[in-house]
TrEMBL record:
Region feature (Disordered): 429-448
Keywords: Signal
Region forming the signal peptide: 1-31
SMART domains linked: PBPb
Full protein name: Quinoprotein dehydrogenase-associated putative ABC transporter substrate-binding protein
Rhodanese domain boundaries: 315-431
Source organism: Azospirillum endophyticum
PROSITE patterns: RHODANESE_3
Top-level taxon of the source organism: Bacteria
SUPFAM superfamilies given in the database record: Periplasmic binding protein-like II, Rhodanese/Cell cycle control phosphatase
Family annotation (Pfam families): SBP_bac_3 (PF00497)
Length: 448
């Protein structure tokens, strides 16, 4: 049996669908001896052809989250490939060919579950030009529409409650080496062979963005008295490894921001604990002009989005680390002759602090300071990698990275987790001073 409950290509869903119609960071000596925690190599059980989750080119979001775990353990990452069909757990995890399954629904009985690391939902998908305007399955615009659905998944029963009977069925359990029914269902919508489809959210979000026609993805909320649309997804391990589970639970807490960033890049619809859907932040065409401490987009056009492990590798290879957190404003109420010493600023070791350059409309002095500082730090080499950051949910770093691209820098890396993500990954911070010539500070009301 397979392990990822809601996905139409995972046989573990069959069983459940029928039923419903803290370890320290790092590799201490104690951790090395603990039951189940990999000390030489992290071996992950995965499907070699199952995007957006995984493939043998390591392009899936589970591949990337597994790499985060391996980097945190400071061990190499290896995969044991097996199709996500009946026998997956029996032939991989149970035979100890691997030590971790990256995605399984909470409650899966074939494995011991970690705490959940994301909650997603089924989603309705239709073409933007289809005339459908539905935000729920009760919308009248769906009446009579030909709707694709994977057999024996929760949407099947809920659709009938809303009188949606013109269904195009797709197979549930299949060999992923040859068939991808959920992906095919979405392609049929894009090609107008069907009008809409209801698919597991990670699949819907990922493949909808890869069609040649604009698609609408509507994450669905649970309906009272009906089969749920939303499921919590955890990692799966063997039952006799409590220390490994504790370590993974601690990892999820520490690195949740990095996990969420990866999921956002793959357009995975995320649900909050109360069932509401998290809004995906769209990338604006211009710069962010206000409310700089707010959720940011998952990516930046023209830049590579990186995490702590990539930043560490880039720094060792000679990349320039650019911290753009604003300098703190002078407290109100001080007299003009009062002496005020700002608190020390802690950043990544070796980082160059360029305060106040991440505003949407910097002053002439701030813009000149940013331009001349980058020229000096790179010695005029526009191909020199730059890693731009501040803190999580900080548009300052997004703006500054975008501005560096506009200045002609060709290897800009955006690090949205910033200093908090660096600490969460187990690294130390260092006290840094602003680069010379930082210029004027913004008004206190701007420092948000």
């Amino acid at each position: 049996m397979n392990r990822r409950l809601p996905s139409p290509r995972h046989a573990v869903f069959v069983a459940v669908a029928l039923c419903v119609a803290a370890m320290p960071v790092g590799r201490s000596a104690r951790a090395a001896q603990a039951e189940g925690i990999p000390t030489e190599v992290l071996r992950v059980c995965a499907d070699a052809n199952l995007l957006p989750f995984s493939n043998d080119r390591r392009e899936g979001f589970e591949n990337r989250i597994a790499q985060l775990i391996a980097d945190d353990l400071k061990v190499p990452l290896a995969f044991t490939w097996w199709p996500q069909t009946i026998g997956f757990v029996r032939n991989t995890l149970r035979t100890r060919q691997c030590d971790l399954v990256m995605g399984t629904a909470v409650g899966e009985e074939l494995m011991q579950n970690t705490n959940p690391y994301y909650r997603s939902t089924y989603a309705l998908v239709y073409r933007k030009d289809s005339g459908i305007t539905a935000k729920t399955l009760a919308d009248p615009s769906l009446q009579g529409a030909r709707i694709g659905v994977v057999a024996r998944t929760p949407p099947s029963a809920v659709m009938l409650r809303h009188g949606l009977t013109n269904l195009e069925p797709y197979q549930l359990d299949t060999d992923t080496r040859a068939h991808h029914p959920a992906e095919q269902a979405l392609q049929d919508v894009a090609a107008a062979r069907t009008d809409a489809a209801i698919l597991w959210g990670p699949i819907a979000g990922y493949f909808a963005t890869r069609q040649q026609v604009p698609m609408v993805v509507v994450p669905l909320m649970d309906e009272p008295g009906a089969s749920p649309f939303q499921y919590m997804i955890s990692m799966g391990i063997r039952p006799d490894e409590p220390d490994w589970r504790h370590w993974l639970n601690d990892f999820i807490v520490r690195r949740q921001g990095d996990i969420d960033r990866i999921l956002a890049e793959y357009h995975v619809p995320l649900a909050n604990a109360d069932g509401t859907i998290r809004a995906e932040v769209a990338e604006p065409d211009g710069y962010r002009m206000a409310d700089y401490r707010a959720p940011t987009p998952p990516a930046l056009r023209g830049a590579e989005t990186v995490g702590p492990a990539e930043v560490e590798r880039l720094a060792k290879a000679g990349a320039i680390l650019i911290d753009v957190l604003p300098s703190p404003p002078k407290p109100e109420g001080l007299t003009p002759d009062s002496r005020w010493v700002p608190p020390p600023h802690h950043s990544l070791p070796g980082a160059h602090w360029l305060p106040n350059v991440g505003y949407g409309a910097p002053s002439v002095e701030q813009e000149a300071y940013f331009r001349t500082s980058l020229e000096a730090l790179t010695a005029g080499d526009r191909k020199r990698p730059l890693v731009v950051f501040c803190q999580p949910d900080c548009w300052m770093s997004w703006n500054a990275a975008k501005r560096a691209i506009a200045l002609g820098y060709q290897a800009v890396k955006w690090y949205p987790a910033g200093t908090d993500g660096w600490k969460a990954a187990g690294h130390d911070l260092a006290t840094v001073e602003p680069e010379p010539g930082s210029g004027t500070r913004p008004e206190p009301k701007m420092a948000n």
